[in-house]
């Protein structure tokens, strides 16, 4: 789905959540930060996540569908608020 569709539905699969996280991180980047959408695909597995390279050269893996951040289980919660009158 498109990121706005994922927000409207309140969730999605790993590709939908990774694309939403990627689009938000790309929209508001930190200086020197690089953001990548990562897809693993094979005969019996497929998965998507986001990798962020910090200005210091450290890579972070953000997996919103798996509650995963660099080998730490984390509660990843996105709160999106409509601030227009739509």
Could you characterize what this model shows?
By secondary structure, this protein is an alpha+beta fold. The chain has one domain (3-73). It is 24% helix and 29% strand. It is built from two helices and five strands. The protein has helices spanning 3-9, 14-27, and strands at 34-41, 46-53, 59-63, 68-69, 72-73. Helix 1 crosses helix 2 (14-27). It is flat, with a radius of gyration of 14 Å. The model has no long low-confidence stretch (mean pLDDT 81).
In short:
With about 90 residues, this protein is of the alpha+beta class. About 25% of the residues lie in helices and about 30% in strands.
Structural class: alpha+beta
The quaternary structure here is single chain
Count of extended strands? 5
Biggest beta sheet attributes: 5 strands, antiparallel
Kindly report the average pLDDT value: 81
Number of alpha- plus pi-helical segments = 2
Fraction in beta strands? 25-35%
Relevant terms:
86 residues; alpha+beta; 5-stranded antiparallel sheet; 2 helices; 24% helix
